[in-house]
Amino acid sequence: VNEQMAKELVVRAGIALVESGLIARTWGNVSCRVDENTFVITPSGRSYETLKPDEIVLCRIDDASYEGTIKPSSEKGIHALLYQTHSDTNFVIHTHQLMASVISATGLERMPSFGFALLGKDVPIAEYGLPGTKKLREGVRKALTKCDGHTIIMSHHGALCFGENYDETFSAAQQLEDACRAFLRKLYLETSHTTVFNEAALQRFYISTVLGEKISLPEKALCIYNSRRTPDGFVLEAENETVYHFTDSSFSEAALIHCEIYKSRKDINYICQDAGGELFAVSLAKAALRPLLDDFAQIVGSSARNAQSTQPHHIVQALRGHLGVLVPGGGALCCAATQSDTQAVRLVMEKDALAQIGTQLLGGKHELSLFDCLLMHFVYTKSYSKKAHTIPAAV
Ligand SMILES: [Zn+2]
User: Fold this and answer.
1) CA gyration radius for the chain?
2) Is the pLDDT of residue 276 over 90?
């Protein structure tokens, strides 16, 4: 393909990846080979929904260098590596897809391919390296030498999928997701000695192994609701939107939680409750959410604590220094300055929770180091604050 066609293909792929749920926000990247010397790749940190072909960056295959003012993805080196070593590869996507991310946190070196045609004999899991580093590229290089299919998993991070063209690469990503789900099922059935696999069964098994006892689960999560800050209080998005002022004399139980969070945290303007399966299960297991994936460490930090009780002061205490907190029996509260950022917090917490439940099947030993988490969170927060986001001023 010529340069212009390659750029248009990359734009199309970015939109398709977001729509398919294989990547979220600007996490992940896409590239397409132009000829034996060059490829084009998505830029760093721009939204895929609005990306234009002239924002796609041309890079050299031999040294990943580029010309022009738009910065290519920081993982351009990994894409360049693939084009160098695989002459039949013309399209590469790096995703943060859910099931591959879960398996990426297991600490294993490979995963069976369950007969999926594009996955080869098995799928290697590359050694861990911090995003954008030489160590990461070396891990990927080694994993590629063991790979006879079209995908590898990147430890604690996501997946790398490649193929002769756009369609083959997307099929490989989808097959990888299906194989990872089959692997999680296999791990569950082997560990639990049962015959039925579904989300609820997996969550119950997780809770009972963490707590060391079988408990009867509440049918419904505690309702804490979502809210948004106003100049002198907040609006609780319960059945009918209730407006509260900090000076009010009576609050509902849920409202009191929001009130205490807003009063103690000037950086938070939105609170969103996620009582969905995985986070509900982790909240009931009284466990903290440990850092198992890079995007969680970047956005949320080194952990999300589980509050000692549902008392507002315990929740505020557990949230200190973090953007997410687990509330026993209430799932998670995801907090941020903007509404779209609460969704980012929510997404990475959900994924990390499933990874935590999945890795528990193998003893749950492998997590990111505290140092790596602090570093990633620092770099992310710093680069993020440099960008011109319209964060409403906290009041
Ligand atoms: Zn990534």
Assistant:
1) 22
2) no
Cα of 198 from ligand 1 centre, angstroms: 28
Coil, strand or helix at 244: strand
Let me know: does 270 contact 337? Beta carbons within 8 Å: yes
| 359 contact partners, CB below 8 Å, separation of at least 6 | 102, 105, 106, 107, 292, 365, 366
The 10s digit of each residue's pLDDT in 317-366 is 999 989 999 999 999 999 999 998 899 899 999 999 999 999 999 887 78
Q: Which among 17, 141, 25 has a CA at the least distance from the CA of 78?
A: 141
Listed residue (45, 61, 70, 58) closest to 10, CA to CA: 58
pLDDT of residue 386: 56
Q: What's the pLDDT band for 28 if we cut at 50, 70, 90?
A: confident
Q: How far is the CA of 46 from the centre of ligand 1 (A)?
A: 14
Looking up tokens 């490649």, which residue turns up?
162
Residue with tokens 């969070």: 261
Regarding beta strands 324-327 and 331-336, do their DSSP bridges make them parallel or antiparallel, or are they unpaired?
antiparallel
Cα(94) to centroid of ligand 1, in Å? Answer: 6
pTM of the predicted model, to two decimals?
0.91
In 3D space, the residue among 29, 355, 12 whose CA is nearest the CA of residue 161 turns out to be 29
Report long-range pairs for 315-324 (Cβ below 8 Å, ≥24 apart). 315/257, 315/260, 315/261, 316/260, 316/261, 316/264, 316/265, 319/261, 319/265, 323/268, 323/299, 324/289, 324/300, 324/349
Ligand 1 centroid to Cα of residue 202, in Å, is 27
Distance 23 CA to ligand 1 centre (A): 9
Task: Return the minimum-mean-pLDDT range out of 1-15, 16-30, 127-141, 342-356.
Answer: 16-30
pLDDT in tens, 51-107: 999 999 999 999 999 999 999 999 999 999 999 999 999 999 999 999 999 999 999
Q: Which residue's structure tokens are 């010309």?
A: 67
In the numeric block, the tokens 């779209």 are attached to 340
Instruction: Report the chain's terminal Cα–Cα distance, integer Å.
Output: 53
Q: How far apart are CA 17 and CA 21, in angstroms?
A: 6
What is the reported pLDDT for 240? 82
- What the block records as the tokens of 245 is 């002022």
